């Protein structure tokens, strides 16, 4: 066994009557364990929230979204659309026309966002998270239907069972040079049958109405223009490789965004919060590790005679420093292992049994989401190694400077 480690382990397991230093070492170990456990739990909660956000957005957004770099719409034709459908890795291509419009139901009005989609929209695993109730179709050519966000439906007081009251959509016409006093000349209007609600996230619930593409195209007078195209990736292909192929095929005039890029601001905010929480808790852990510094300093004072004897026997200063560095490492390592195990256990219990509830009856999930990512354990371990070295170096250096002549 390595000599420095052997001596450090003996000091760590010391059970003398004068055991104040031993008690202080155990307190240091408990402090490290609690801090490490807190880091594991908090990081896992942030991972769970990030995963939940991605899952919620995936219920409404496409895996890949094609938009024009300039302007809110672009021209299409069947030949061009077929060429995209035939690209390797593209399973489903959904055409989209999306814009703001005035919504009216039985005299209740609001500004919402109408999203016209082609018939295969619901084939892309839409509304797999959250809540959905009502009919899962968008009606027929003669009787187009609408799927409303829950917030839109509640604000307009929509009754899905009342088939006699339609949802009216108003959209402003392009301005004309000829003056007119007839208000109806300033907007297009059409009606939809509300048949279903969805509830995913307030960002979508309070704003969106899903309608057939042909209905929105005729109302908005878009013709062959589309605001975006949504792509579902075929099995056996990754989103990254299909995104790369689409970018190469479409050129610089189009943006091809994956799910994270469609909501880059929110995802980046969650990741930044996670980073700052990690740094904050690491700083608190570093302050707690001052116990290691004090326990090693007191140990160095208590063991001056032992150190002097070792030096007299020919032990170099390097060996003395290693003894105290390894003593600090044993304290930190023991606490870190206990903290990592306890943190993982708490996360496992939360994942399995949902011990801590959100306390919100209408939430998409009942309990706080957690997700253990093993790379977090690596970074927590790296942080602990750095903190241990900083806390142990000074006492180890002091111990190595003991004067052999005075102490023996």
UniProtKB/TrEMBL annotation:
Keyword Transmembrane: yes
Subcellular location: Cell membrane
Pfam family, one: FtsX
TM segment ranges: 20-46, 275-301, 328-353, 373-393
Protein topology in the membrane: Multi-pass membrane protein
Top-level taxonomic group: Bacteria
Gene Ontology annotations of biological process type: lipoprotein localization to outer membrane
Transmembrane helix recorded as keyword: yes
Residue ranges of domain ABC3 transporter permease C-terminal in the record: 280-400
Keywords: Cell membrane, Lipoprotein, Membrane, Transmembrane, Transmembrane helix
InterPro entries reported for this sequence: ABC3_permease_C, Lipoprotein-release_system
Cellular component terms (Gene Ontology): plasma membrane protein complex
Protein family (similarity comment): Belongs to the ABC-4 integral membrane protein family. LolC/E subfamily.
Name used for this protein in its record: Lipoprotein-releasing system permease protein
Naturally occurring in which organism (per UniProt): Algoriphagus locisalis
């Amino acid at each position: 066994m390595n000599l420095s480690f052997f001596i450090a382990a003996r000091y760590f397991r010391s059970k003398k009557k004068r055991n104040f230093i031993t008690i202080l070492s155990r307190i240091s170990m408990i402090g490290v364990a609690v801090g490490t456990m807190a880091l594991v739990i908090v990081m896992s909660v942030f991972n769970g929230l990030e995963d939940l956000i991605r899952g919620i957005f995936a219920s409404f957004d496409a895996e890949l979204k094609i938009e024009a770099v300039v302007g809110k719409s672009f021209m299409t034709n069947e030949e061009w659309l077929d060429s995209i459908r035939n690209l390797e890795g593209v399973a489903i291509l959904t055409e989209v026309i999306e814009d703001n419009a005035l919504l009216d139901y039985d005299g209740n009005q609001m500004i919402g966002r109408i999203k016209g989609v082609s018939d295969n929209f619901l084939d892309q695993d839409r509304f797999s998270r959250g809540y959905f109730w009502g009919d899962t179709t968008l009606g027929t050519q003669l009787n187009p239907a609408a799927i409303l966000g829950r917030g839109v439906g509640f604000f307009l007081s929509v009754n899905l069972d009342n088939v006699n009251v339609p949802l009216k959509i108003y959209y402003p016409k392009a301005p004309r040079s000829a003056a007119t006093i007839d208000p109806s000349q300033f907007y297009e209007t059409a009606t939809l049958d509300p048949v279903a609600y969805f509830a995913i996230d307030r960002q979508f619930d309070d704003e969106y109405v899903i309608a057939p593409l042909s209905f929105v195209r005729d109302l908005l007078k878009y013709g062959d223009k589309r605001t975006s195209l949504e792509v579902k990736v075929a099995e056996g292909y990754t989103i990254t490789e299909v995104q790369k192929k689409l970018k190469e095929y479409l050129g610089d005039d189009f943006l091809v965004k994956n799910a994270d890029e469609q909501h880059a601001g929110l995802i980046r905010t969650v990741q930044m919060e996670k980073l700052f929480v990690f740094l904050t808790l690491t700083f608190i852990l570093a302050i707690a590790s001052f116990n290691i510094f004090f326990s090693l300093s007191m140990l160095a004072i208590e063991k001056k005679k032992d150190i002097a004897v070792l030096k007299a026997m020919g032990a170099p200063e390097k060996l003395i420093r290693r003894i105290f560095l390894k003593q600090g490492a044993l304290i930190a390592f023991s606490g870190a292992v206990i903290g990592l195990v306890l943190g993982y256990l708490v996360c496992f219990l939360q994942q399995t049994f949902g011990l801590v509830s959100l306390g919100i009856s209408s939430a998409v999930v009942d309990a706080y989401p957690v997700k253990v990512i093993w790379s977090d354990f690596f970074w927590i371990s790296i942080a602990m190694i750095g903190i241990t070295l900083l806390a142990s170096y000074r006492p180890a250096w002091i111990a190595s400077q003991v004067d052999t002549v005075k102490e023996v």
